[in-house]
Amino acid sequence: MAEDFMDESMLEIFLFETEQNIEQLENIVLISEKANTYSEESIHEIFRIMHTIKGSAAMMMLNNLSSLAHGMEDLFYFLREAKPQNVDYSALSDLILDGIDFIKSELEKLKSGGKADGDVADLNEKIHSCLTRLKEENAGVVEAVATAEAPAAAEKAEKQPVSSSKKAGELTGYEAVIYFEDGCEMENIRAFTVIHNLQDLAGEIFYEPADLLESDDSIEAIRQNGFKVVVYTDKSYEEMHQFFLNTLFLKELEFRRLESTDSSREAEKPDAAAGTAEKVEQQVQTASRDQDKNAAGSAATQSMISVHVAKLDKLMDLVGELVIAEAMVTQNPDLVGLELPGFQQAARQLHKITNEIQEVVMSVRMVPLTTTFLKMQRIVRDMSKKLNKDVKLQLIGEETEVDKNVIEHLSDPLMHLIRNAIDHGIESAEERLQKGKPEGGTITLEAKHAGSFVLVLVKDDGRGLNKEKILEKARRQNLLTKPEEELTDKEIYSLVFLPGFSTNENVTEYSGRGVGMDVVVKNLEVIGGTVSVDSQEGQGTVFTLKIPLTLSIIEGMNINVGKSRFTIPVTSIRESVRLAKNKLVKDPDGNEMIMVRGECYPIIRLHEFYQLPTEITDLAEGIFVMVEHDEQRLCLFADEILGQQEVVVKSLPSYIQKMHRVRGIGGCTLLGDGSISLILDIGGFIQN
Amino acid sequence: MNEFEQQNLAEQEDTLKGKYLTFYIEDDCYGIAIRYVTEIIGVQPITEVPELPEYIRGIINLRGKIIPIMDVRLRFKKPFLEYDDRTCVIIVEMNEINMGLVVDRVAEVLYIPDEDIAPPPEISKGHNRYIQGIGKVGDDVKLILDCNKILTDDEIEQLLQL
Q1: What's the pTM?
Q2: Structural domains in chain A (count)
Q3: Which residues of chain B neighbour A610 with C-beta distances below 8 Å?
Q4: A265, A363, A471, A606: most buried, per Cβ within 10 A?
Q5: A104, A139, A156 - which closes a domain
Q6: Cis bond before residue A161 (omega within 30° of 0)
Q7: What's the order of all strands across the beta sheet hosting A583-586?
Q8: Mind telling me how many Å the CA of B82 is from chain A's nearest CA?
């Protein structure tokens, strides 16, 4: 039954929000742990996040999640109110992180279409015992705040049957009839939320229709007659009234105090009570005015919104169309030969605006690497604790922006590399001291732009790769394809990326199963990235991930050859030269080279390379663009340079990629007039 | 609500069943199952991509989507015909592959029930491996194309080239 209420989009929003909350929570915990204390704000924040998760999980009928969050909330409620002195913060962090992991795994299950059915009993037990221990150890403080504890007790009541939680005599009864706004949909779930939230405040709750979630008829009933709630609580009239006014999508509220005594309570169930006692009718106006006030308040604090990526894709496509449409209007053949100064001026203005829109839309999709990098903090923390190594993670350039799609594929490879670095790379503290290194190891995670690529470097200051060991292993596994003497250091190191290669003899929890490195390679291949490694024995190892900015923006130089247009990433261009002042050199095989300032560079005639018809085949007429890749330079011969502009990199259609890997072409892009230009990948030329 | 959508989808699937978009190459009439067809456009400027087989004419920009263009004539080893204003590009989508098929001209959408489609004759296997069946409409014969084969059947081609 519950699944019926899990509306797709609601689930999506729930997942998104909870994930964000969890991420934030994790960060707070990690920071607090480092400081070895939980500041008041942190505790408050954690409490708030847990409360949110509890509420939304309950709304999604995920009882295990909500009960877990509830337990944690209790724990932090105690910390917040009692401010105990003797707290084992490290154990506390472990506990919360365990909880976070549990919630994460449940979210994963939900994402893949499964059910969140993990068992929380163990965790709840742990949290409970932690709370009890805390209370025992800080018995003195508890006394002092016993009064403040009262609401917490009310919260605990949630676990027990609703009706038996408090002594009835002290409670006052209120009746509320809630009318939701027309067309707000899912009235029964909204009503359920109200009840759920009420459970924190109230002792006894009766409501009608009682079969809220069990039948769809309840929706109709609520629309017709409103949602009736009778609560018995020790809260004041104002508090309760305010609570009901805060209901979402509230259209109208009838609220009154029940004059009844204990004996008559049964009779005062909503159906009987309707309209008997004095009525405090709340007009829509006041309610809506209150809501407006709330809305204004939240608008001021919230400057970020989250948008579905599909919408951004759509927007991007539309802007592309707009640009083409603009060109079709302003460069319309019908206009040829007409003197239209006013039109030209307006067209220029339009052009300026469309350009700006395009730029903004492109930049919207870019996301900084910060969250991905911060996730690694957690891994470093967990592992250094388990392996008893003191490892620090240093982040550089985490604000580097990468397309949303690329980021998603980055965290797995990074995780592997960092685990490997801590497990195999960083030595134990004694070993490090012996070698004269600082006791704690450092792992540096660095991101930077390099042409149409982003480089992510994972650097450790550990023992480095052992060439001998690698070679020996490779020999044993029969992985060598060249005589050993001919292998360069880099080639030897690259052997670790081969499938089935793992230098660590011992399988540990984290690494050494002979998978890992080749998984990194495969993961990166999905997004067209590569990984390389360099190392210095005793000094450390650097893994360099080179990730293309698929769909991200690069600065490109447009050139044309015949009718075809190509874009060269500006970062790989050194200069452009004409033949006139420079000398042409030919080697005996007929390979052409050009002499620029005493240096010889090979020439690649693009029109020959790609067999494109063009009128400019005389080297003196065209232009040479000198490009560089991996410290090798060469000159590309093209007809002319069209200009420089920011372009969005798009990958070639999968059909073409599958069919044939075109040499030297890394992708394509749309130029301002809607035509397509092919982006040259200089590395592809060098290999030839 | 989901149920409704599903029902809607199922209905849509139903209305597409047995319908074929017919087009001409020279004087032969071919049909392609309409559920693979996303849209039909006129010929646009095509950007050539080097080093591809002749029948892949290049790529076009269809509202921000980059789509490869295949000339069906060349795919069937027929002589190239200059594109004119009757030339059409049928955009098909299958297994998440988008492709524009250049055809001489598009005819109409026909309903051909399954029982009117005969399997292709087995004599000339080499030639008609793209034909899924032969549909009879009145006295006419429509060659039903196997979309999947056109888009993926490259291995044989490549072997022949070696």
Answers
A1: 0.49
A2: 5
A3: 50-51
A4: A606
A5: A156
A6: no
A7: A573-577, A623-629, A632-638, A599-605, A592-596, A583-586
A8: 17
